[in-house]
Prior knowledge:
Strand 14, helix 12 (363-376) and strand 15 form a beta-alpha-beta unit. By secondary structure, this protein is an alpha/beta fold. It has helices at residues 14-19, 43-53, 58-61, 63-67, 78-91, 178-187, 203-214, 226-236, 251-263, 277-284, 325-341, 363-376, 391-395, 397-402, 421-433, 459-478; strands at 20-22, 34-40, 99-107, 116-127, 132-140, 146-155, 162-164, 193-198, 218-224, 244-247, 269-272, 298-304, 312-315, 348-352, 384-389, 415-417, 438-444, 450-451. It starts with 13 loop residues before the first helix and ends with a helix. Helix 6 (178-187) runs parallel beside helix 16 (459-478). An eleven-stranded mixed beta sheet has the order 10-9-8-11-18-17-12-13-16-14-15, with helices on both faces.
Amino acid sequence: MTQTPDTPALPPSPADDLSIIRNRVFDEIRIGETASIERTLTAEDIQLFAVLSGDFNPQHLDADYAASTRFHGVIAHGMLGGALISAVLGTRLPGPGTIYVGQSLKFLAPVRIGDTLEISVTVSTRDERRKRLTLACNCVNQDGVSVVAGEAEVIAPTERIERERTTLPEVRLCVNGGGLHRLLDHVRPLGAIRVAVVHPCDVLSLGAAVDAHVAGLIVPVLVGPRARLEAVAAEAGLDISALEIEDVPHSHAAAERAVALAAGGDVEAMMKGSLHTDELVGAVVPASAGLRTKRRISHCFLMQTPSYPRPFIITDAAINIAPTLEQKADIVRNAIDLSHAIGVQAPRVAILAAVETVNPHMQATLDAAALCKMADRGQISGGVLDGPLAFDNAVSAASARIKGIVSDVAGHADVLVVPDLESGNMLAKQMEYLGGAASAGIVLGAKVPIVLTSRSDSRETRLASCAIAVLLAHRYRTTPP
């Protein structure tokens, strides 16, 4: 159909609004006209604003410090709210072509990670001669509390502007090893521990033992065939001449000998080399080996990702394939012990499932409910449990709020307890390879910590895992597992 000059123009469709940015010219704008956007604040938003502004105030970035302040947690920079007001002025009202002249702001309440803000501007005065507008500005959180308020003065555009929205580049924040450096700085003063490195007969595992030794974390006792160890060292250019070697013929013997050293108190930890995990754990599990405790043995990944404000634990992703309720209780207890060792006194433990409601047809939800009741009855202590929680509810306060979940754990989890090994292993590796997470792996439930790493793990992961073993070994001196 051909549109005649008298035919009114059709209003833009919602699809147009997603792909087109357009303005309102001064002559169209009336007093009382308003526009708004909504934004849910993430930890990454705060970190990125700190990078751009250079404002590294620990109130905004250091969760431990922020917890001790009057706000009892991390809060956003005040001017982040100002930037969001600018976004409304520059993209909605008046929109492209707007010239910012002045802005007054009052910061009325803290803005926290997970808060959903409605940022609005409302025209309060018009200056016809100078084409200027004064707009009341307000940022209101999900509870209806005004957190930032003020007034902006702008020169409104006088010509129509309509452009395709610019596709912005993806920005990804990287920690650059800061977490590892802080961990090593914290652990070194404790002193190195003797560690049985089990069958480190490839360059990666032998190099990891030497790295941890040079870093001041461990005194390695290499358990394996001496000739093979010396050949690997020569191939890689590693100097192991000063290291103690327990000469055994093969990997099975290496696992048995390392367990005997640990059971006899000659070493305070064990570290997996190039043998398979099943072979090492198989030597630890028998009661006759002398390393068992009353607890089920389980594995913990300690992880830190740029998109989450604190380190967190994923368990069990390496040892227990399909744990029962009783086994999950020990998995939780072990994770709580690790949390205490790294300084989290009351870890928030999220019991994960596919949904956040109890479903009789989904065993993971039944187990989650039972574990929480066990915690209520004192059968599991030292942490705060909640579940079942879906993954998004566990790590996103905004998601939990949208679903009406009121919980001390939801959105703030320190520990993620997965239903089975497969889901945990996939989750941990997704975090590492797609989420940029740094990680460390450790086995708990035995009388000594066991460093369990993969052939594909980075040098940083191996060092961090050794550092965690040092923390646990020193803790076990006074508080045996």
